[in-house]
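sanity check both lines:
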Amino acid sequence: MVRSAATLMRERGIHGVGLREIVTHSGGPRGSLGRYFPGGKTQLMTEAIDVALAELFDEVDRALTEVETFADAIGAIVAPWRRLLVDHDFALGCPLAATVVDAADNDYLRVHVSELLARWQASVADVYVKFGDPPAVADEQSTLLLTALEGALILARARRSTEPLDTVERYFASRASARKPETGPSRNS
């Protein structure tokens, strides 16, 4: 049910998905909702967001341990999102964006998503630090990259094209040429 909730939320947003639809999509018994999710839809959606992002974050984290250049790191950050869009015919988007847009009236979900976004931003900032930026600059740059990436995901779904993601990747990877010359991660990482 959690995976079904994640898929449906990424397609339609939180308000666009009812509990009955999740049960039907998952093929599970309706009675299990109350048993396994006593916190109702909020609990189910929270777990769905966590599952969807855990897989993506794990993939990105693994890829980032192997990158040797800043441009490769940007590619590793963007690649899973591109694959998600293509593999699901542009039907699935970011569960964080879907939640923020739909859950403005649900403080629990909003705070949870804010914490996940902060974790994601910190992970991206670590990439900038790894390749030589001071923490304050890394924090600013990670904010810009995540902002651009979220916008690109929306444009990509609307256009049914990876071009917006490709543009974000090219733009941020090209910033490497404006940075100090790279020979790999900085020695203090």
